[in-house]
């Protein structure tokens, strides 16, 4: 475990080096960005991270500000704050060559936003049950966060969760409640700067978007594919929002295939930095 100062915050970062390497070039780097509220980098430990390292990727995971073991400031939760965090973290870690970004839910919004800001630093983006930050996204986030903040004050909620799902789930939900009730998250996230369709069209980074067939986000797959110059969308059957957990193996297969297809092959003698 490492705590790294990035953008003025202490962020919890974990790295798993590639288990196998080929040739003399540095292995590709994949950065895994988790979702909001009850999520943390731990989700990737039990899903994609070990497999990606075994496949020859250097894996970087980190807890978003306010979540997991990272520092929790009272304010600064707009999307652009998270983008600044990721940018500063990659500056500190200095991975070799452009990175592959994999984002789950809100993490995919961060990944896409970073590619829009820094196309030369991103080899590919894989978004799991996610979407770019648009005006419609901001309205939806405002409603969802307000509803979540209210629901997490309900009498007896944590006792019910412990009885049905155990103390581990209750611990994560309590952490989400603290984030919503002790920070400006509910106000900040919907106030984030958003992208219009022209800005989305300008993102030339290859994007893979995975959706659960039972999720409302699946309706976006045609819209996203129509805008982006290099994009593949896949709708996974019998899945809702939690594709990362419910369809780990097929999602991992698709993402590894996408990463391999969009990893530059260095010429002999090239040094990638």
TrEMBL record:
GO terms for molecular function: hydrolase activity. Residues 28-155 form the AB hydrolase-1 domain. GO terms for cellular component: membrane. Keywords: Hydrolase. It comes from the Bacteria. SUPFAM superfamilies: alpha/beta-Hydrolases. This is Alpha/beta fold hydrolase. It comes from Streptomyces klenkii. The lineage of its organism: Bacteria, Bacillati, Actinomycetota, Actinomycetes, Kitasatosporales.
């Amino acid at each position: 475990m490492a705590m790294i100062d990035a953008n003025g915050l202490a962020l919890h970062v974990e790295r798993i080096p590639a288990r196998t390497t080929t040739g003399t070039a540095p292995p590709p780097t994949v950065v895994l960005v988790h979702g909001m509220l009850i999520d943390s980098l731990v989700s990737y430990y039990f899903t994609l991270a070990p497999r990606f390292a075994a496949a020859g990727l250097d894996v970087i995971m980190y807890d978003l500000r306010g979540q997991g073991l990272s520092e929790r400031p009272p304010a600064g939760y707009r999307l652009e704050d998270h983008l600044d965090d990721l940018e500063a973290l990659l500056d500190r870690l200095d991975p070799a060559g452009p990175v592959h970004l994999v984002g789950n839910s809100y993490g995919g919004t961060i990944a896409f936003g970073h590619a829009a800001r820094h196309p030369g630093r991103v080899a590919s983006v894989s978004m799991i049950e996610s979407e770019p930050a648009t005006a419609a996204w901001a309205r939806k986030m405002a409603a969802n966060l307000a509803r979540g903040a209210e629901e997490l004050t309900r009498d007896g909620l944590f006792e019910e969760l412990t009885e049905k799902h155990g103390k581990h789930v209750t611990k994560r939900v309590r952490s989400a409640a603290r984030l919503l009730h002790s920070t400006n998250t509910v106000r900040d996230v919907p106030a984030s700067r958003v992208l219009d369709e022209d800005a989305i069209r300008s993102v030339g980074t290859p994007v893979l978007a995975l959706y659960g067939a039972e999720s409302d986000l699946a309706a976006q797959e045609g819209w996203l594919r129509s805008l982006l110059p290099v994009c593949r969308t896949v709708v996974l059957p019998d899945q809702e929002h939690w594709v990362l957990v419910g369809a780990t193996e097929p999602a991992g297969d698709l993402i590894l295939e996408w990463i391999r297809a969009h990893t530059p092959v260095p010429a002999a003698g090239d040094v990638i930095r």
